[in-house]
Amino acid sequence: MKRWLRRIVILILIFTGSASQAFSKEIVVISNSSFPLDSLTKIQLLQIYIGYQTTLYGKTTLKPLDQGNDQLIKSLFLDKVLEYKLEEYEDYWSKWKFKTGRMPPMIKPSSKEVIQAVLQEKNGALGYVWDDEIQGMGGIKVLFKIPLKQ
Fold first, then answer.
1. Are 117 and 77 in contact, with CB atoms under 8 Å apart?
2. Distance CA 29, CA 45 (A)
3. What pLDDT was estimated at residue 22?
4. Which residues pair with 56 in a beta bridge?
5. Distance separating alpha carbons of residues 65 and 115, to the nearest angstrom
6. What's the pLDDT score for residue 25?
7. Between the CA of residue 120 and those of 77, 111, 141, what are the distances in Å?
8. C-alpha–C-alpha distance, residues 44 and 41, integer Å
């Protein structure tokens, strides 16, 4: 039922123009400027967001941040980068958490909270936001870009 409701909402957004604005943007994966790498690959992001990779070089503990489930950006990130649907991702994490004891990425209710957490965390935090939300902002490093052009 949730899947159909989500699809209906996305279709409504597309026809009303709200989603067309979102699709002209990019999603960017960001970190604090002190993050030890300058970029990440799609494979690295997948490994981080599904809990396979939890550290960099055995030193930096990775702290991936997620957006709230009702956010369009989360559905797009899961689809374009992790190649998961929201329900599949939640199901994966419920099983992985039980099997390994690892916790899923911390959920932040909005991009604003993701940006604040990345700026406050000196090492290891990363999250995804719309590219225009970080324009002209210091202390942020863009690690990966996800174009959403149709």
1. no
2. 9
3. 47
4. 60
5. 10
6. 86
7. 23, 14, 13
8. 5
For residue 101, the model assigns a pLDDT of: 86
pLDDT of residue 145: 97
Question: Domains, the chain, ranges and CATH?
Answer: 26-147 (3.40.190.10)
Give the residue ranges of the chain where pLDDT is below 50.
Answer: 4-5, 9, 11, 13-22
| Residue that the structure tokens 């957006």 belong to | 67
Task: Name the DSSP letter for residue 133.
Answer: G
Strands 63-67, 106-108: pairing is: parallel
Taking all residues of the chain, what is their mean pLDDT, rounded to a whole number?
86
Radius of gyration, alpha carbons of the chain: 15
CA gap 13, 34 in Å, rounded:
37
The 10 Å Cβ neighbour count of residue 135 is 8
